[in-house]
Specification:
The chain is of the alpha/beta class. The protein is about 30% helix and about 20% strand. Among the domains are: about 115-280 and about 295-325, 2-enoyl-CoA Hydratase, Chain A, domain 1, CATH 3.90.226; about 440-535, Pdz3 Domain; about 545-675 and about 720-750, Alpha-Beta Complex (2-enoyl-CoA Hydratase, Chain A, domain 1). Strand 19 and strand 20 (about 475-480) form a beta hairpin.
């Protein structure tokens, strides 16, 4: 007896061990930092994809700020889930929630399916069990409904369709829905109008500060459909049998709203069963789902029975459906809700929070990360994964000890965008460190590896400064040391433009402030030169017209000074020249649209290719692509050869001018690569009043070739030299003149 008992105990132990091994191990609670990162990603999914935020007054910032300490304090996955759910509860939307553990399992199997068609009450109520339709072939077989199936539907005085999905294979509920769609026309005796879903659509990132860019945020309603009937006679009662895993589609709710259909639910219907949702992993085995669209009809059951209810072995849910089918009673009709009016509001910038609380610093981090994640069109060109930036910078934002630490953390994170359009502005600590303010009245560039003065805008503001001088120090500090201090906070699309920006920032300061430069002249003598910062001194001096005729009958135009009103008289004056040099070593004044019609000898239609990110309930990675048409006008064509002078000072609109002329007449580029940052800018706002700008469009050459981070590439490469600058020569212009002479000689055998 004792041996037998020992044997039984051993068997029970083995069974228990096997059962324990079969149970999945509990998921460990993610670390505090991981939980916060997951919370930030979820916050962004709701912020930019949940439709309610496009028209309802919801303080989504406050929901995050309140949730952060609760998420941090969670010591178990259950407490973590509860803390996250607390943030989502602000939406008052049960379709957006942290999934319960049982929702991630297949669920208990339903009772064995009946025959696909059976009768109740003699031949009065036809019960169609669509759980029998579990393969693509079985669904396809209902597309052209068999004749005997049609006869049964036409004879039935009422129809019950079983769409309960608990225990079905993965996505089995969608096969049931597709099968229902094939039956639907045969259940109708009059046309059914089904309204479309509505959701939010971001076409690019709408500027937070009124920067004109064309990016929009909209609440859109998709076109509905009309389903034509194939049934005959009067409408008959139709009852759908559902459970918490059933997919409820708009057509069902439209029929219910018209009083043509009733829903019986075994267990509570899932509020998200009728709309698409995004899944957001939270770690620790937890998942949240986010509503992506809305229907104008509420999801409600006409009758609900307890899950797995049995009475004497009978299917209680089916019995309830039969009761409604035989005595439908008064059917309630529901009018669709009116589409709400969308209201766009910029994010709060919390200007008073120069040193935000830790929770608001994390809000800043999550705003910055999510905005770039969803809307930056050049993420694929970054040297480092933007996905990793969230975890990298979370401790830096948290540990910022003061206002300066916070503002510099924002600036440092912005460098990962690697975009020449990225500026971090409007925080006093940035100006104190030269990351914001007024620039110098001269241009400093790298020449032969040294920081050299190449141009002086205002000689009175910088007396004694001249092109060709090498700058070695500023206010007694070695310039290279100053540049190293700035490097962590300055970004650009490529190394040459970043160096140019660093040199500019090294000279930046408040309006009216003065600094002293240590410069070395051609003789090697070290001079001390004082300069004054003034916004009015940033513009080039204007010696004469912006266009003229050079020796050899070559036209020349300085596009940094040429105005739109100058374009017509310029071409009138230069129409007989043999060639035209367009100097684009700087920033233009919107003249590309006026210049191009005169130069479009190819009859080109398009000048560039644009793409921008589309973020919606449908997709968070879609792109809107279009070809930009070249401007047209009835003007005489200039048929001489054209060249454009370029270097890293040419950015954005300057580069776009090059794209237009490249497409219009194959303009030759001479000089060195441009900045490689093009596409209408936009901006986001962060606590402390900080504004971060970035490029919103992906702009390419008309043939699709990359421009961002590459720039316009010169056909003829040339850089100024120290000797050339010191002797007053413009070597880039000289090379362009020599190029034109060479091309003219090779074309007609003559020389100038």
């Amino acid at each position: 007896m004792r041996t037998r008992l020992s044997t039984l105990l051993l068997v029970f132990s083995l069974v228990a061990a096997i059962a324990a091994a079969a149970e999945p191990a509990p998921h460990p609670l993610p670390s505090r930092e991981e939980r916060l990162a997951h919370l930030g990603r979820l916050w962004g999914q709701v912020r930019y994809r949940h439709p309610a935020l496009a028209y309802r007054d919801i303080d989504w910032d406050a929901a995050l700020v309140d949730a952060i300490p609760r998420v941090e304090a969670a010591e178990t996955p259950a407490a973590y889930a509860e803390a996250v759910q607390g943030m989502l509860d602000v939406l008052k939307d049960s379709a957006t929630r942290v999934l319960r553990s049982e929702e991630e399992k297949p669920g208990d199997p339903l009772p064995q399916a009946r025959e696909q068609r059976s009768w109740e009450g003699g031949r009065e109520v036809l019960v169609v069990d669509l759980r029998t339709v579990q393969t693509p072939a079985a669904v396809h077989a209902l597309r052209e409904l068999p004749a005997d199936f049609r006869r049964d539907l036409s004879r039935a005085k009422a129809v019950i369709i079983d769409l309960r999905s608990r225990g079905l294979p993965l996505h089995g509920e969608y096969r049931l829905s597709e099968a229902f769609g094939h039956l639907l026309p045969h259940l109708l005796t009059q046309p059914l109008r089904v309204p479309g879903m509505r959701g939010v659509l971001h076409s690019g990132f709408r500027s937070q500060s009124g920067i004109p860019s064309g990016y929009t945020t909209s609440l859109v309603t998709e076109a509905g459909e009309v389903i034509e009937p194939e049934g005959r006679g009067r409408p008959r009662p139709v009852v759908l049998l559902l459970d918490e895993r059933s997919y409820v589609e708009p057509r069902m709710l439209a029929m219910q709203a018209r009083g043509l259909l009733q829903l019986v639910s075994e267990g509570e219907l899932d509020a998200g069963a009728a709309v698409p949702r995004a899944r957001v992993e939270l770690g620790g085995g937890l998942t949240a789902v986010v509503r992506l669209s809305e229907l104008p009809f509420p999801l409600r059951a006409d009758a609900e029975v307890a899950r797995r209810s049995k009475q004497g072995g009978r299917d209680v849910a089916l019995q309830k459906a039969l009761e409604l089918a035989r005595k439908p009673g008064k059917r309630t009709r529901t009018r669709p809700e009116q589409t709400p009016t969308a209201r766009w509001r910029p994010d709060r910038k919390y200007e008073e929070m120069l040193y935000p609380s830790r929770e608001h610093r994390l809000l800043a981090l999550f705003r910055l990360w999510n905005t770039i994640h969803f809307f930056y069109p050049y993420k694929h060109l970054l040297d480092r994964s933007w996905d990793d930036a969230l975890a990298t910078f979370l401790p830096r934002f948290e540990q910022a000890e003061d206002a300066a630490g916070y503002a510099l953390a924002v600036a440092e994170m912005s460098t990962l965008i690697q975009d020449g359009h990225t500026y971090v502005r409007f925080h006093p600590e940035l100006e104190k460190r030269g990351l914001e303010g007024v620039g110098a009245p001269f241009v400093l560039m790298d020449v032969e590896g040294k920081p050299v003065v190449v141009e002086v805008h205002d000689a009175e503001a910088a007396p004694g400064l001249a092109p060709g001088q090498v700058v070695e120090s500023i206010d007694g500090k070695p310039l290279e040391e100053r540049l190293r201090e700035l490097e962590p906070y300055v970004t650009a699309s490529h190394a040459a433009h970043r160096r140019l920006r660093l040199l500019r920032y090294a000279l930046t300061g408040p309006e009216g402030s003065e600094s002293t430069l240590g410069v070395r002249d051609a003789s090697g003598k070290l001079l001390q030169v004082r300069f004054t910062r003034s916004r009015k001194s940033l513009q080039k001096e204007n010696p004469g017209e912006a266009y003229r005729v050079l020796e050899g009958n070559i036209g020349y135009a300085d596009l940094t000074r040429l105005q739109v009103a100058d374009v017509e008289p310029m071409f009138e004056k230069l129409k007989s020249t043999r060639a035209l040099i367009l100097d684009m070593r700087g920033y233009p004044n919107g003249t590309a649209w006026a210049l191009t019609p005169y130069l479009n000898t190819r009859g080109a239609r398009y000048g560039a290719v644009f793409e921008r990110n589309l973020v919606s309930g449908e997709d968070e990675t879609a792109r809107y692509k279009f070809f930009q048409e070249l401007p047209r006008a009835s003007v005489p064509l200039y048929r001489g050869r054209t060249v454009m002078l370029i270097d890293e000072r040419a950015i954005s609109q300057a580069e776009h001018t090059g794209l237009f002329l490249e497409a219009a007449n194959g303009t030759t580029f001479i000089g060195s690569p441009t900045a490689g940052a093009n596409g209408d800018i936009t901006n986001l706002l962060l606590p402390g009043g900080i504004s971060v700008t970035f490029t919103g469009h992906d702009v390419r050459h008309v043939d699709g070739a990359q421009l961002q981070r590459v720039g316009l590439r010169p056909h003829v490469y040339v850089r100024p030299t120290l000797d050339g600058l010191r002797t007053g020569r413009d070597e880039v212009l000289e090379r362009a003149l020599r190029y034109l002479k060479e091309r003219s000689s090779s074309a007609d055998g003559s020389t100038w």
